[in-house]
Each structure stands twice: as C-alpha cells, then as structure tokens.
Amino acid sequence: MLACVIVWSSKDPDKYRKLVWVTVFLTFDVIMFGAFTRLTDSGLGCPDWPGCYGHANPLQAMEHIRAAEALMPDGPVTVMKAWVEMIHRYLAMGIGVLIIAIMVIAWRFWLQSGRSNQRFSPRYPMLLFVFVCIQGAFGAWTVTMKLQPIIVTIHLLLGMALLGMLTWVGARQKDHAPVAAQASALRVPALIGLMLLTLQIALGGWVSTNYAALACSDFPLCHGAVIPQMDFDNGFTLWRTLGKTADGEYLPFAALTAIHWTHRFFAFVLAAYLAWLGCKALKIEGMRPVARALLGALALQITIGIATVSLKWPLALAVAHNGCAALLVLLLVMLNYKTRISGQPEKIVSQIK
C-alpha cells in the first residue's frame, strides 16, 4: 500500500511511530469522507456490499448504475454517488491494511525485545484489529440494512472510537514533556469529558442519519420557541427503518424536531463542561498545549455549528462539523493520556533501528 511505502522510504528513523501517526491521520480523513458520503446521500450509491453490483468498481458496474439512475434520477444510485460510496470503502479497507501492518510489526519488535519493550506490546494493535473488523461489519450492515439509523449511528461511533484508540497508541510512541503531578486530579474529569463528547457525537449522528438537520431552522430558538412541540417517543425509538416509526408509519416532523433539539441542547452542556476542563488544564504544567488546542477546537466547533444552522446546512460546513468533532475526540484522548503519565519523568522512547 502507498502509505506503507511512503513511511518505509522516509528518513524518519522511528518508522513504527510514523506508521501509527499516518494511520491516525488517514483515519481522520476517512471519518471526514464518511461524513461527506452520508451527507451527500451516497450511502446506497452501490446498493450491495462489498462490491458495486457485484463488481470491484463502478466502471465495471456502469450499465447497472445507469439503469438505476434512469429509473430514479434523484434516487440513491447515481454515477457520482456510486463513486463516492466506493472511494469511501477503498479508504476504509486501506485503514484495515495499515492496522494489520501495525499489528504485525508490533509483534515482531515485541518478540525481538524478548517481550520486555512494552512500547511494542501487541495487545493494543490486536485490539485495533478486532475493532476495525467490527467496524467493517457495521459498514456492510449500513448498506445491506438500507441505512437503518441505529446501524449508521453505531458505524459513526465506531469510527470515532477507532480514531481515539489509534491516538492512544500514537501517544505511547511520543516523547512527552514532564506533566505536573497535579494533572492526576483531572483523570476523572477528563474521562467524563470524553464520555460526554461520545454521547454528543451519538446525538449528532442520530440527527444526521434521520435527516433531522433542518428540523430547527432558526437559532438559538427552535420554531420560535425555547421548547417547541416535540415527539421524543418516536424520535428516539432506536430500532426502526429510516423515516418510519416502529409501527411503520411515516416519522412525524415533531419527532425530527425532538432529535435536533436534543442534540442542540446537549451541545450547550458539553461546551460548558469542556470549556471548564480546558481552563483547568491550562493551569497545569505539561498540559497547556493540549488544553489550548482543545479550547480552540471547541470554539471552532461552536462557530461551525451555529453557522451550519444559520446558513441552512451547507455541505462544506456540515462535513467540517463532523471533522471538528473528530478533532475533539483526538484532543480529549491526548488529554486523558497526559493525565495518566502525570508526575512521571520525561518518557524516553527508543528508536527502531
């Protein structure tokens, strides 16, 4: 794979570390492209899996795609949507290959070290491998179950979790400046922050997968009210088909309003908590760079969120909103990692010879 060739031909002496961080970067990109796939309604651009009408790429399936597009010009299958969906699959498979490479290399260096170098402990790469397989299964179910909202939302959450796990593995490969011992007091608050962010991402995924983004078109009110008319029962029934209630009726607009309003309300809660957490971390030696980045990303995410609603959900801003959420995941994982190494001397990382 091209990424592996680039890493191994680079002049960086620690190629294992570089491979891990390249995989982090590409996983972030795949999450962004996955958001683009979802927001352009391209999830069923190729309605089978893993191929496209049984072929490896849309070029070979062009006859089938053209026929489907002729029947429904504005439907889920078009040439553009087929390419978007398949490119997303190719990128996701590439991440799987990179994780396999990380796992194999970790095993090799761990055994060469006599199983003493915990930096190369294979338990994390093996967990990544299991996790990416589960993620692949949910990617397949996303297509075969016709974009069922709960499946698509779990697929998003697993992608974010994979990014967080890769970031943790990457953090283990870096040299870290000493972190003051008082950072240990933030271990629980930092973990709570990550859990709250996960819940908010789940709510955001639920908005996106139910096409509830424009259910509240004004801000900060919703339909001119602080608490508009809402249908939480149907809105948060998890196991149902897209656009339908559990009884098979069309999902009422009040249910979409409930989905959007809940995501918006919880955004205020999360923003207040992360702002407090970032300010606390700013006061601790060794935590300040991550804390500044966290507060900056939070401010950017709030701005993008408001602009997205005010400008009627433009595609570029909607994709950026997903990307900024992924950036917050990465930064909160780094913050959690730093609280775990607080009070320890500077971490010495041996280089791969």
Automatic annotation (TrEMBL):
Membrane topology: Multi-pass membrane protein
GO biological process: heme A biosynthetic process
Family matches, as Pfam families: COX15-CtaA
CC terms in the record's Gene Ontology section: membrane
Keywords from the named record: Cell membrane, Disulfide bond, Heme biosynthesis, Iron, Membrane, Metal-binding, Oxidoreductase, Transmembrane, Transmembrane helix
Subcellular location field: Membrane
TM spans (from-to): 19-39, 90-111, 123-144, 150-171, 183-203, 261-278, 290-309, 315-337
Pathway field: Porphyrin-containing compound metabolism
Source organism superkingdom: Bacteria
Single Gene Ontology MF annotation: metal ion binding
Name of the protein in its database record: Cytochrome c oxidase assembly protein subunit 15
Organism listed in the record: Herminiimonas fonticola
Classification of source organism: Bacteria, Pseudomonadati, Pseudomonadota, Betaproteobacteria, Burkholderiales
